[in-house]
Amino acid sequence: MMVPAVQKKLIDIVSSVVKGTKNMIDPMMGSATTLVASMENGLNCYGQDINPLAVLISKVRTGPFLVEGAKQQAMHLMKRIESDKNDKIEKEFKGINKWFKPVTQQELSKIVRGIREEENLNVRRFFWVVLAETVRVSSNDRTSTFKLHIRPEDEIDRRVFSAIDVFALHLDKTLEDYEAHTVLLANSGQLVQESYRAEVHIRIEDSKASIYCPTKEPFYDLLVTSPPYGDNKTTVTYGQYSYLPLQWIDLNDIDAKATEDFLRTTLEIDSRSLGGKLTEIDSEKVDELCKQSPSFLRTRKAIEKVNDSLVKKVDAFLLDLNQTIANIFEVMKPNSYQIWTVGNRRVGGIEIPNAAIITELIEKNRESWCQQWNGK
Ligand SMILES: C[S@@+](CC[C@H](N)C(=O)[O-])C[C@H]1O[C@@H](n2cnc3c(N)ncnc32)[C@H](O)[C@@H]1O
User: Fold this and answer.
1) Bridging pattern class, strands 350-352 and 345-347
2) Which residues are bridge partners to 347 per DSSP?
3) Which is more confident, 279 or 340?
4) Residue 39 in this model has a pLDDT that exceeds 90
5) Which whole-number Å values give the CA distances from 359 to 54, 287, 322, 354, 363, in the listed order?
């Protein structure tokens, strides 16, 4: 999760200085840090992400904020879990026995059954978030990286813990965080009863396919986002990180679009993310990209010299990102603002100057957007 100190300041400045700033979007919102910063300014907030776990966390972080309800129901939930004598395993998926000990599967199943009995969807979502972290640390995954790596067998045997105790601990901690987060928004005058006073909409959406827009005309005054800095498979594997938690969560509680297809393999979410499909590279579009961004052309040539096969990775990612930028311009109002947080990375020892490349791509997209707009 990003610590949005600089972004928050920029959002504060744009919101207060640019009159009429109302609607913001983050098309790669992760866990909604930019949305929360924008909520403190009372903006209408729209967020989307390809990863169902990001969408679940974002929905919880943007309300409704049922702190008292969650606290009360947490006590009932723990009672249900502790008195559950059923040993049935609630989930079935490939690799369940590799990633979870039998006793952990039983305990996680008791938690799942307990959560399912909670009537309020928003409280259930809060509990699923707590379960997500519980699953991650209770699995046989090494957890030291975002990638899934099995622990050595002797280490798995030596680890003795109760997933229910882990859940109870996380439940207390997450309730505290939830309350502090809610107090912050309430103190900035943004809550009416237990809900955000303006609009907030969170969706599962592939931003290289489309950016949600509630009107036919351009709608957004402000974009605040931080894209991945390369394809997920070789940078941060957000999808692999989410794979085991999502297996234990009832996906229909997240969103109607959160289907089992996302969990076809451990790599599915990462391959749907920007740069995830190396087989779909259109060489004409790569040539076009080289014309749009001199920094990209230079970097591509340098990588080609070192290792020709690595070029595909950079091509796939930047083509997808450029498509996303084009989609973004479709929904931004004239004179709107965009705040991008980007990071450079290395491929084959060569630095990819993402900051320079993305700046050039945005500038080119802005130019063609201006031409189109003036023509209307
Ligand atoms: C650097 S993270 C954003 C982190 C976020 N600012 C936060 O603080 O939590 C990039 C996000 O882009 C998302 N993403 C990658 N490809 C995407 C796509 N095609 N459509 C929408 N989101 C995508 C990833 O799932 C990830 O959550």
Assistant:
1) antiparallel
2) 350
3) 340
4) yes
5) 26, 18, 11, 8, 6
pLDDT value of residue 216: 96
**Contact between residue 337 and residue 223 where contact means Cβ atoms under 8 Å apart:** yes
Ligand 1 pocket test: which of 8, 11, 24, 28 has the largest number of ligand atoms within 8 Å of its C-beta? 28
Q: Which residue has the tokens 């969560």?
A: 249
Which residue is associated with the tokens 């369940």? Answer: 96
Q: Which of 6, 46, 50, 354 to mutate to test the pocket of ligand 1 (most atoms within 8 A of CB)?
A: 50
For all residues of the chain together, what is the average pLDDT? 95
User: How many residues belong to the chain?
Assistant: 376
Maximum pairwise Cα distance, the chain: 69
| CA neighbours closer than 13 Å in the CB half-sphere of residue 197 | 14
Please choose, from the candidates 251, 253, 264, the residue with its C-alpha nearest in 3D space to the C-alpha of residue 94: 264
* CA separation for the pair 174, 169 (Å, rounded): 9
Distance from first CA to last CA of the chain, Å, rounded? 40
Q: Please, where are the H alpha helices in the chain?
A: 5-17, 33-39, 52-61, 67-83, 96-99, 102-116, 121-138, 153-158, 163-187, 238-248, 268-272, 283-292, 294-306, 311-331, 354-375
Give the type of residue at 324: T
Nearest C-alpha neighbor of 179 from the set 194, 168, 192, 166: 194
134, exposed or middle or buried, with CB in 10 Å at 0-12, 13-18, 19+?
A: buried
